[in-house]
# Entry
Amino acid sequence: MIPDLGKYAATVLSAYGASLVLLIGLVVLSLRRGRKLRAEMEKIEQRMSRNG
# Structure
């Protein structure tokens, strides 16, 4: 099931590993930013409802 990569095994596996790390990092950063923006929007909505 796993192909024989021969002399390129280290290069291919490190590329897969780097891609996986970058994808996980992007997901984590996106989730963090989403939470931060959601909290900020809730604060703005609360201020708007008090004033208006």
